[in-house]
Design goal:
mainly beta; 0% helix; 47% strand; elongated
């Protein structure tokens, strides 16, 4: 666990404030695994999902259809609910 410092500016007051917070490097960026079986639609090719990135509670995926989908993480069961989906064309 790392401790990082961020510099914030307070608008209108001309003040700067340094805030320290903890950074936990816990992310997941694979499209294969037991924790993400639910991101795969039924009857698709093995390379349908091109990218995935997960944090402690959500995972976002990109697929061949240009869709960006947001799921709850982990999602070990097939057919999980999609929280958000956006298509790029």
């Amino acid at each position: 666990m790392k401790k990082l410092k961020k510099l914030f500016g307070i608008l209108g007051q001309g003040k700067r404030k340094i805030k320290t917070f903890r950074y936990i490097s816990s992310f997941f960026s694979s499209t294969i695994g037991d924790d993400i079986i639910g991101i795969w639609p039924k009857d698709v090719k093995k390379d349908h999902i091109n990218c995935a990135h997960a944090t402690s509670s959500t995972i976002v995926t990109g697929d061949d259809n240009g869709a960006v989908k947001l799921f709850k993480f982990p999602c070990p069961e097939p057919g999980v609910k999609i929280f958000f989906c956006f298509f790029f064309q």
